Predict the 3D structure of the following.
Amino acid sequence: MQFSLSDDDLAFRKSAREWLTANVPSHSAPHSGKPSREYAVAWLRKRHEAGWSGISWPAEFGGRGLSFERQVIWHEEYARAKAPSPQDPTFVGLNHAGPTVMECGTSEQKEFHLPRILSGQSIWCQGFSEPGSGSDLASLRTVGLVDGDHLVVNGQKIWTSYADIADYQELLIRTEPGSQRHKGLSWVICDMRLPGITVRPIRNMAGATHFAEVFYDNVRIPLANVVGPLHDGWRVAMTTLTFERRTAAMALQLTMAEKIEDLARHYLSIPAGSMASAIGRDIAMARAEAAALRALTYRTLFRDPSTAFDGSIVRLFFAELSQRIYGIAMDLLGPRNAEAIQKDEWVYGYLEAFSETIAGGTSEIQRNIIGERILGLPRGAGR
Amino acid sequence: MIDLNKTVEQNQIVDSVRLLLAANHPVARLRQEHVDQEDLGPLREFGAFTMSLPEGAGGAGLSVVEDCLLHRELGRHLLSPSAIALTLAIRLANEIGDTELLDGLVAGRRKVCLGNLLVARPYLAGEDGHRDSANVHLYDADGKGLGLILCIDGIALVDLPAGTDAEVAAADHTIRLTRSSIGTLPRFRNAASPIARLAKLLISAQLLGICEAARDLASEYAKVRTQFGQPIGSFQAIKHRCANMAINAEVLSAQLDFAAIAERDGWEDAGAQIDAAWLLACRYTIDTCRSAIQVHGGIGFSAECDAHLHLLRAQLFENLGGTAADRLQRVLEEKFWPATMDA
């Protein structure tokens, strides 16, 4: 067990810190619609021009190809600089679609899409969940039938973040008629401007409209847009999810330590701020847990990945801890938490954080995975 | 370079100590009504208590990281608290240069038990007061020898006056509990000293072992116990309880490894990392042990099931050298640690 950085790594930290200090936007990100796209694209372009886009992407695809050590340093500095949340309109492209195309795409797909994702020229959204297929993703029913050199797509997706402002969608559909469950699916690049696509934004509980329903009415997608083999989309989709669990969540996880420190600093500055109050106890516990989340994040990255399936644990622990931390903020705000948007956005964050234990696999599904894959408990009836 | 895997040598230590514990200290030994005084001889011969002692002093020259890996295994087997006392006493004897004491402890001629101060103050180093009141708990004391006494202000190594301790009934019947009276705290090290910090790490490591053992007991039981025609572990109510135990153990073990590395490498925030690990160790392990009893149902409430042994030991460890309130206070008021790995 070694944990030390080289002088070169420390020099790297210095350059990351200097660049971030000078370049982090001074105003906060809009939550929805075109302004959110413009903000995210401008921020990504700035990073791209300075060589800070795609830090986890291999150099052959235009990324920095940084070691995990340096990725961690970058994300630590990113969190420390209070840079915009990475969960923005560029997230799916950089962390899901791009890596999937890299891993499974054709050379044409790579050449066309990867540079556009890295530079912020194209924005991606994800088309996995359906009204009848949430936790049970493999039951999805949106179909794509082969017709000549096209797929003809009919059906509906839901909870698609940034569908209203995206250029492309990573679309998981049933392409083999009569197929069941994980078989017969394909992972397809869908151009969001194609005729037959209707996007209806959904307002979420925090008042933002960054996710949407997407309807497909005889949408013709070229077969050349299938990523990986036709009918092998489940395996392709799993590639994406593995990548997400490795590095994409790192910045978010490291940000939680900064958030609870802000709250602790605020609490200790109040004259009455002591252990006498339940809030003080909650803050102490959350500080210890934020420290542990950081340790767990490092462990997930710097331990032989074959030793354990700890992806679900770190994800779930992060999701629930972030909700606890925002809950503490609400307690600290007291009656002022009735105001919808505070200048530091704690109320908005509190409401948004409800999605953390739902999106990308609910906490209940994560606990099933932990119980079954890590502890070896038997699967329940019907699953 | 960052590598959080155990080294080949660390794996060897863990594998060897597991074999030794399985042979000499099965948890089944604690099922009898009267439990014999733990014989730490085989572990002493293995070098378990001198691993982090410098080679020049007869140790293996390893670090607190290896100590933690070892004590995690001891925790799984619910070893007598004397194992923690002996590790700390040997380090302390070496630090103060008392070679006669050191040799006696290493050779097993001098015995040391763990003790816990029942009142926080005014028992500071060198102070003398309240001699007449029975102010410490001793665990597995044998009526003579030394006591390694823990309190919120630090630790001390005390020569126990013979015949002054009185046995009291223990909630955890696998421990011989006595009350004794101590006026001063000689060979005192304050809470910021490396030895006091090692004490917290060892307690946390043993709690992690207990947490893991309780998790394993419950999840193995959930695989074999059937109700309504299926293993109870297939029901989400049980499965999710077990998943929470796995989360507790994994999160705690990540923080403990990290704190031990921070301490070994002398990071500025090592004390804060240790306090965070200590807080989580107590909270998560009690939580896991309670839950393990619930998963076992009726048999879990009986003395025939080992689950309660883990809970009782965790309850005892939770109050060694500080209470839940002390730990929360410390973590709340800790110097803000910078959230970067090289700071």
About this structure: Chain A touches chain B through 65 residues (CB under 8 Å).
